[in-house]
């Protein structure tokens, strides 16, 4: 066709006519010109194409008197009728490394024949911690229905620049077949009031060139009457694309049920939880003195609280995995001093992103996370306690009694003792002894004198831990036998 036969100078004149960039290699200029034909069917543009063609091939001017042939693949892109009405279906905008003159503003969204209007607010998508945007290939663009059918199709075409292709090819593999640099499709509600989270329309299907791309399914719901939820994430298209100068065609199939959606295409680098953890350790550590000042401030601000006169307890166990903290972390927006482990928190959000604090169930986004420098220091200095108490002056002390009661070194014996009570595991010795209630009382009293300052319930627990008590074991055993 005419555009494909143009030389570089012709392509530059055509693109300059509509205010688009004239820089780049020939295949980039051809791609831009084809996109112009696909997404702007204004008479002025076709007239200019015709004029350039006739100028270049004046001997064949009689042949071009007929209407220009449709551009390549036009049969697969039924956009002209909608663009005559000024819709915004699947417009393809420049990549960020190309500057476009302001003159092209009136051709955005295929509205070349309408007078320029005041710029409207654009749809913005929220930043995702696990995706670093390298280029914007298609700005968020509204999906406009072509008819009254419930199932709609919205196509768009675009081509990668050689630089973008090299970024993809040279990127490392996150896993076999999955590159860290990707072309992803993001979909959200058409809402300009605030940055939007990813949200899929009903009946979504995404076709890249000739193959359908997998889209995340639904999380099953275990609660009756509760709709299963779908994790709406960026959809990786890279493995189905042409990594060359060839144009790629993407078709989004979606359900038209009243709500408006917008789609965008981005070149991104996918990050891992380990990389985000390293970044947090580099820029997110809060100095111990600042954390100490926060402790003092918190206690000062709670004069009516019962803990205000003594202090506040903080566990050294992560609420996520019930293990000792390694990288104590919380959000700056959290009101509590309790921390969770950054390692497990990031791994959890890598698999299923919620970014909710496990302590207070409030949002704890990545860019609000801090590593508690004071608690990090305490963890290295206090290895024999699972809980500490902050005092009003900002100092701290371990709570070892809690440690001894809950995680005694004699824990295996404690388990055996509790099994004795349930009659599950008889003790190996003392079966021939008589078990009498007075003997139990005497033994308990004697043992409690050797325990440290604890309550009676704790003393009984520790007595089991602190060495063999044949008579008491025997009495428990006999008691169990007689009960049976």
UniProtKB/TrEMBL annotation:
Pathway assignment: Protein modification; protein sumoylation
Main location: nucleus
Keyword Magnesium: no
Organism of origin: Sclerurus mexicanus
Localisation per UniProt entry: Nucleus
Keyword Ligase: yes
Start and end residues of each SAP domain: 3-37
Keywords from the named record: DNA-binding, Isopeptide bond, Ligase, Metal-binding, Nucleus, Transcription, Transcription regulation, Transferase, Ubl conjugation, Ubl conjugation pathway, Zinc, Zinc-finger
GO biological process: protein sumoylation; regulation of transcription by RNA polymerase II
Cited InterPro entries: PINIT, PINIT_sf, SAP_dom, SAP_dom_sf, Znf_MIZ, Znf_RING/FYVE/PHD
Biased composition (Acidic residues): 450-467
Domain SP-RING-type: 303-384
Gene3D superfamilies the UniProt entry points to: PINIT domain, SAP domain, Zinc/RING finger domain, C3HC4 (zinc finger)
Catalytic activity field: S-ubiquitinyl-[E2 ubiquitin-conjugating enzyme]-L-cysteine + [acceptor protein]-L-lysine = [E2 ubiquitin-conjugating enzyme]-L-cysteine + N(6)-ubiquitinyl-[acceptor protein]-L-lysine
Domain PINIT per the UniProt entry, residue ranges: 109-271
Class in the EC hierarchy, top level: transferase
Family as reported in the entry's similarity comment: Belongs to the PIAS family.
Cellular component per GO, a single term: chromatin
Name under which the protein is recorded: RING-type E3 ubiquitin transferase
């Amino acid at each position: 066709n005419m555009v494909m036969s143009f030389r570089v100078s012709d392509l530059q004149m055509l693109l300059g006519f509509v205010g688009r960039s004239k820089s780049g290699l020939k295949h980039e200029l051809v791609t831009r010109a084809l996109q112009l034909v696909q997404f702007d069917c204004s008479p002025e543009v076709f007239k200019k194409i015709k004029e350039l063609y006739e100028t270049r091939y004046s001997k064949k001017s009689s042949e071009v008197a007929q209407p220009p042939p449709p551009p390549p693949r036009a049969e697969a892109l039924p956009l002209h009728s909608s663009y005559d009405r000024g819709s915004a279906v699947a417009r393809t905008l420049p990549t960020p490394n190309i500057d476009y003159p302001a003159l092209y503003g009136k051709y955005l969204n295929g509205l070349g024949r309408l007078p320029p209007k005041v710029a409207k607010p654009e749809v913005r998508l929220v930043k995702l911690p696990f995706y670093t945007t390298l280029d914007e290939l298609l700005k968020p663009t509204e999906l406009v229905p072509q008819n009254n059918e419930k199932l709609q199709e919205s196509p768009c075409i675009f081509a990668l620049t050689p630089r973008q292709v090299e970024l993809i090819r040279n990127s490392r593999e996150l896993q076999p077949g999955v590159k860290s640099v990707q072309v992803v499709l993001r979909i959200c509600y058409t809402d300009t009031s605030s940055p939007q989270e990813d949200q899929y329309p009903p009946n979504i299907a995404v076709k890249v060139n000739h193959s359908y791309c997998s889209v995340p399914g639904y999380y099953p719901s275990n609660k009756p009457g509760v709709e299963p939820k779908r994790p709406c994430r960026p959809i990786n298209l890279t493995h189905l694309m042409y990594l060359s100068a060839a144009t790629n065609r993407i078709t989004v199939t979606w359900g038209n049920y009243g709500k408006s959606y917008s789609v965008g295409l981005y070149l991104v680098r996918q990050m891992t939880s380990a990389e985000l953890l390293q970044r947090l350790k580099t820029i997110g550590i809060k100095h111990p003195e600042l954390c100490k000042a926060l402790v003092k401030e918190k206690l000062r601000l709670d004069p009516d609280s019962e803990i205000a006169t003594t202090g506040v307890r903080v566990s050294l166990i992560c609420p996520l995995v019930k293990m000792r903290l390694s990288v104590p972390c919380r959000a700056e927006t959290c009101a509590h001093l309790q921390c969770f482990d950054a390692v497990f928190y990031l791994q959890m959000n890598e698999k299923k992103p919620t970014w909710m604090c496990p302590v207070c169930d409030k949002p704890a986004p990545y860019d609000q996370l801090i590593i508690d420098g004071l608690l990090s220091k305490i963890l290295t200095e206090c290895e024999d306690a699972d809980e500490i108490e902050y005092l009003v002056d900002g100092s701290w002390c371990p709570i070892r009694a809690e440690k001894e009661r809950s995680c005694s070194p004699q824990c295996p014996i404690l388990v055996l003792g509790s099994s004795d009570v349930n009659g599950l595991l008889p003790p190996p010795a003392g079966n021939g002894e008589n078990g009498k209630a007075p003997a139990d009382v005497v033994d308990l009293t004697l043992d409690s004198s050797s325990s440290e300052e604890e309550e009676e319930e704790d003393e009984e627990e520790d007595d089991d831990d602190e060495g063999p008590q044949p008579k008491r074991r025997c009495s428990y055993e006999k008691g169990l036998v007689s009960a049976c």
